[in-house]
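Schema walk-through. Below, the input block comes first and the output block second. Nothing else is stored per chain. Lengths vary across the set, and this one has 355 residues.
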Amino acid sequence: KIFFGLSAIKSCGIGAAEAIVAARKKGGAFASLFDYCERVDPQACNRATIETLIKAGAFDSLSAKRSQWLAVLERAMQSGAAVLADRRSGQRGLFEDTADDTATTVAVSLPDIPEYDEKQRLAMEKEVLGFYLSSHPLSEHEATLRTYCSHTSAQVARLDARTEVFVAGMLAAVKFAHTKNPRPGSTHAKYAMWDLEDLDGLVRCILWPEQFAEFGHLVKPDAILALRATVDRRPGGEETNLIVNELIPLDELSERFTSGIVIRVREDVHGLDGLAKLREIVRGYPGPKSLRLRLELADNGAVMLDCPKSGVALDPELRRRVEELLGPDNFRLVASPRSNPPAPTNTRRRAMARS
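--- output ---
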């Protein structure tokens, strides 16, 4: 399966892609970065190109980490240059035709270093591909976004102007600027614009000076935030902006916007014993949030039970213990109804949003 064309990778291009394909057709699949550097002409595929290919994940199938390949890139290129020079002069290496010996030498020569963490790997992919390939920085927050967001970026594009939304995602392409004519009576002039990127796409956002004065410290590239906003669109136009009223860190959502908890208990898996153990766990975390039980019966029936006398606290330890007992996906937060503050009505702001 082809995930992404070689020639479309940053710093690769058609010439390098053709050289790589030709070498692969002539000598078969590459065994390692060293093998690659020995077979592909460095004039067609230079250091910058190879580094880009490693960052894109093109060498991931060759049994080493991206961090290891980048660490030995200089040595691999020197080794490859020496082999290519020998071939041009008519010499042959002692083990040139012995794949096993070559593979063993390469494996021993790789440094014992950890792989880049997921955030670093994804940043590399975004740098050279223009998007995240192996995963997405928001994947670990998918359940949170699904619980609390009223819309996704794709849905926002279909909403009417002035619709109030609660969305979340990662801030990208952040730009700061100052208004030429601050609002009468206001001392604030700095504002910010960015693309809010979620798992469905992105939407342009604007944080005007009054709101920037309160929430501007949260506006940073790659920050993951939730926001209350109002849809802004020129009449008859297709471009959609969001006028931001409030920015909220994700770790504040559960405390501020959770009305209760739903716990699922399955008769055929957990039985009455599981229900009794759950009761003992829940009793240890009294609090103001409502608790509901979803009892899934062995005959495929289901019952929802409110537990008005068993309010619980939003404690991470409660979730951990419940999931240890019942398994993952049996503990769910319930978002409370959201009400956005009134949308800005200043016509100057709306005109600037469209500029």
